[in-house]
Amino acid sequence: MTDAAPPAETNAENGAQGSAGPAGPGFRIVAQYVKDLSFENPKAPDSLRVDGRPQIDMGVEMNAQGRQDGLFEVELRLTIKATTEAMTVFNVELVYGGLFALQGVQEQDIEPLLLIECPRYMFPFAREIVARATSDGGFYPPFMLDPIDFAAIYVARQQQIARGPADTGQA
Questions:
Q1: Would you give the DSSP letter of residue 12?
Q2: How far apart are the C-alpha atoms of 28 and 31, rounded to whole Å?
Q3: CA distance linking residue 119 with residue 97, whole number of Å
Q4: Which of left, alpha, beta for 80 (phi over 0: left; psi -120 to 50: alpha)?
Q5: CB 109, CB 87: distance < 8 Å
Q6: What is the three-state SS of 114-146?
Q7: How far is it, in rounded angstroms, from Cα 86 to Cα 10?
Q8: Which secondary-structure segment (H or E) carries 39?
Q9: Is 150 helix (H, G, I), strand (E, B) or coil?
Q10: Of 3, 15, 26, residue with least CA distance to 114
Q11: Strand-pair partners of 76
Protein backbone atom coordinates (compact mmCIF):
# COMPACT_ATOMS: atom_id res chain seq x y z
CA MET A 1 0.00 0.00 0.00
CA THR A 2 1.28 3.47 -0.88
CA ASP A 3 0.32 7.07 -0.28
CA ALA A 4 0.23 7.80 -4.00
CA ALA A 5 -3.03 8.98 -5.49
CA PRO A 6 -4.53 6.89 -8.30
CA PRO A 7 -4.05 8.23 -11.82
CA ALA A 8 -6.66 10.73 -12.98
CA GLU A 9 -9.42 9.36 -15.17
CA THR A 10 -9.05 10.01 -18.86
CA ASN A 11 -11.94 11.25 -20.94
CA ALA A 12 -11.90 8.98 -23.99
CA GLU A 13 -13.61 11.52 -26.24
CA ASN A 14 -10.97 14.23 -26.11
CA GLY A 15 -8.06 12.57 -24.28
CA ALA A 16 -8.23 15.17 -21.51
CA GLN A 17 -7.78 14.13 -17.92
CA GLY A 18 -10.97 14.51 -15.93
CA SER A 19 -11.36 15.39 -12.28
CA ALA A 20 -14.15 15.95 -9.81
CA GLY A 21 -13.80 19.75 -10.05
CA PRO A 22 -11.67 22.50 -11.50
CA ALA A 23 -7.95 22.48 -10.83
CA GLY A 24 -6.83 24.48 -7.80
CA PRO A 25 -5.07 27.83 -7.95
CA GLY A 26 -1.60 27.93 -9.39
CA PHE A 27 0.70 29.38 -11.98
CA ARG A 28 2.63 28.27 -15.02
CA ILE A 29 6.05 29.53 -16.06
CA VAL A 30 5.73 30.65 -19.68
CA ALA A 31 9.30 31.96 -20.10
CA GLN A 32 12.41 32.99 -18.18
CA TYR A 33 15.09 35.29 -19.55
CA VAL A 34 18.00 37.60 -18.81
CA LYS A 35 16.66 41.11 -19.28
CA ASP A 36 19.86 42.90 -18.29
CA LEU A 37 23.28 41.67 -17.16
CA SER A 38 26.34 43.69 -16.28
CA PHE A 39 29.62 42.34 -14.91
CA GLU A 40 32.51 44.64 -14.11
CA ASN A 41 36.00 43.64 -13.01
CA PRO A 42 37.56 47.13 -13.09
CA LYS A 43 40.93 46.30 -11.49
CA ALA A 44 41.65 43.05 -13.35
CA PRO A 45 44.05 41.32 -13.20
CA ASP A 46 45.00 42.75 -9.77
CA SER A 47 41.51 42.03 -8.38
CA LEU A 48 42.06 38.31 -9.01
CA ARG A 49 44.79 38.22 -6.34
CA VAL A 50 42.98 39.74 -3.38
CA ASP A 51 44.07 38.51 0.03
CA GLY A 52 41.24 37.65 2.38
CA ARG A 53 37.57 37.97 1.73
CA PRO A 54 36.14 41.09 0.12
CA GLN A 55 33.20 42.95 1.67
CA ILE A 56 29.97 41.99 -0.15
CA ASP A 57 27.14 44.50 -0.57
CA MET A 58 24.04 42.91 -2.05
CA GLY A 59 20.64 44.25 -3.07
CA VAL A 60 17.50 42.32 -3.98
CA GLU A 61 14.41 43.80 -5.58
CA MET A 62 11.29 42.17 -7.00
CA ASN A 63 8.79 43.81 -9.32
CA ALA A 64 5.72 42.47 -11.09
CA GLN A 65 3.23 43.87 -13.55
CA GLY A 66 0.30 42.63 -15.56
CA ARG A 67 0.42 42.59 -19.33
CA GLN A 68 -2.21 43.15 -22.03
CA ASP A 69 -2.15 39.43 -22.92
CA GLY A 70 -3.25 38.41 -19.40
CA LEU A 71 0.21 37.18 -18.37
CA PHE A 72 2.34 38.67 -15.60
CA GLU A 73 5.96 39.76 -15.93
CA VAL A 74 8.09 39.33 -12.82
CA GLU A 75 11.56 40.84 -12.48
CA LEU A 76 14.18 39.77 -9.99
CA ARG A 77 16.91 42.42 -9.71
CA LEU A 78 20.16 41.40 -8.01
CA THR A 79 23.09 43.74 -7.41
CA ILE A 80 26.30 42.42 -5.89
CA LYS A 81 29.37 44.53 -5.23
CA ALA A 82 32.56 43.05 -3.78
CA THR A 83 35.12 45.51 -2.41
CA THR A 84 38.25 45.66 -0.32
CA GLU A 85 39.69 48.75 1.31
CA ALA A 86 41.87 49.22 -1.75
CA MET A 87 39.53 48.49 -4.66
CA THR A 88 36.29 47.28 -6.17
CA VAL A 89 36.83 43.59 -6.82
CA PHE A 90 33.74 43.02 -8.96
CA ASN A 91 30.27 44.40 -9.55
CA VAL A 92 27.35 42.33 -10.91
CA GLU A 93 23.92 43.64 -11.84
CA LEU A 94 21.31 41.19 -13.08
CA VAL A 95 17.68 41.70 -14.01
CA TYR A 96 16.20 38.25 -14.50
CA GLY A 97 12.68 38.13 -15.86
CA GLY A 98 9.90 35.61 -15.94
CA LEU A 99 6.55 35.46 -17.67
CA PHE A 100 3.82 33.73 -15.67
CA ALA A 101 0.25 32.62 -16.35
CA LEU A 102 -1.98 32.51 -13.27
CA GLN A 103 -4.94 30.18 -12.90
CA GLY A 104 -7.66 30.29 -10.26
CA VAL A 105 -5.77 32.68 -7.98
CA GLN A 106 -7.89 34.93 -5.75
CA GLU A 107 -7.27 38.64 -6.28
CA GLN A 108 -5.84 39.14 -2.77
CA ASP A 109 -3.33 36.33 -3.40
CA ILE A 110 -1.96 37.61 -6.73
CA GLU A 111 0.60 40.07 -5.33
CA PRO A 112 2.14 37.66 -2.79
CA LEU A 113 2.26 34.93 -5.43
CA LEU A 114 4.03 37.20 -7.92
CA LEU A 115 6.49 38.69 -5.40
CA ILE A 116 7.25 35.60 -3.28
CA GLU A 117 6.60 32.35 -5.13
CA CYS A 118 7.57 33.42 -8.65
CA PRO A 119 10.96 34.85 -7.56
CA ARG A 120 11.51 31.68 -5.51
CA TYR A 121 11.23 29.63 -8.71
CA MET A 122 13.41 32.07 -10.66
CA PHE A 123 16.18 32.33 -8.05
CA PRO A 124 18.18 29.15 -8.84
CA PHE A 125 18.53 30.26 -12.47
CA ALA A 126 19.57 33.80 -11.49
CA ARG A 127 22.03 32.35 -8.96
CA GLU A 128 23.65 30.25 -11.69
CA ILE A 129 23.98 33.29 -13.96
CA VAL A 130 25.76 35.27 -11.21
CA ALA A 131 28.05 32.31 -10.45
CA ARG A 132 28.91 31.87 -14.12
CA ALA A 133 29.56 35.60 -14.61
CA THR A 134 31.98 35.72 -11.66
CA SER A 135 33.65 32.50 -12.79
CA ASP A 136 34.01 33.81 -16.35
CA GLY A 137 35.41 37.00 -14.80
CA GLY A 138 38.30 34.98 -13.38
CA PHE A 139 37.12 34.40 -9.82
CA TYR A 140 37.51 30.97 -8.32
CA PRO A 141 35.55 29.77 -6.59
CA PRO A 142 32.67 31.64 -8.25
CA PHE A 143 30.41 33.80 -6.10
CA MET A 144 27.42 31.74 -4.95
CA LEU A 145 24.43 33.64 -3.63
CA ASP A 146 22.96 32.32 -0.39
CA PRO A 147 19.27 31.41 -0.52
CA ILE A 148 16.98 34.44 -0.24
CA ASP A 149 13.86 34.62 1.94
CA PHE A 150 11.50 36.33 -0.51
CA ALA A 151 8.60 36.14 1.98
CA ALA A 152 10.57 38.16 4.55
CA ILE A 153 11.47 40.77 1.92
CA TYR A 154 7.80 40.99 0.87
CA VAL A 155 6.61 41.38 4.49
CA ALA A 156 9.23 44.07 5.19
CA ARG A 157 8.18 45.92 2.04
CA GLN A 158 4.50 45.78 3.06
CA GLN A 159 5.36 47.08 6.55
CA GLN A 160 7.34 49.93 5.03
CA ILE A 161 4.39 50.85 2.78
CA ALA A 162 1.99 50.71 5.76
CA ARG A 163 4.19 53.14 7.72
CA GLY A 164 3.89 55.61 4.87
CA PRO A 165 6.53 57.95 3.50
CA ALA A 166 9.55 58.64 5.67
CA ASP A 167 9.40 61.70 7.85
CA THR A 168 11.22 64.62 6.31
CA GLY A 169 11.72 66.36 9.62
CA GLN A 170 9.34 69.19 8.72
CA ALA A 171 6.39 70.13 10.91
A1: T
A2: 9
A3: 9
A4: beta
A5: no
A6: HHHHHHHHHHHHHHHHHHHHHHHCCCCCCCCCC
A7: 67
A8: strand 26-40
A9: helix
A10: 26
A11: 62, 96
Preceding amide of 45 cis, omega within 30 = yes
Q: Pick from 28, 22, 18: which is nearest to 99 by CA?
A: 28
CB 125 within 8 A of CB 96: yes
| β-sheet bridge partners, residue 27 | 102
Q: What is the pLDDT of residues 64-116, one digit of tens each?
A: 999 999 899 999 999 999 998 888 889 999 999 999 999 888 888 899 999 99
> What sign does the CA torsion over 148, 141, 38, 91 have?
positive
CB atoms within 10 A of CB 96: 23
> Which residues, other chains included, contact 72 with Cβ-Cβ below 8 Å and sequence gap of 6+?
64, 65, 66, 99, 100, 101, 102, 110, 114, 118
Q: Which of 150, 147, 148 is nearest to 158 (CA)?
A: 150
Q: Are 81 and 57 in contact (CB under 8 A)?
A: yes
pLDDT tens sequence across 115-167: 999 999 999 999 999 999 999 988 878 899 999 999 999 998 888 888 877 65
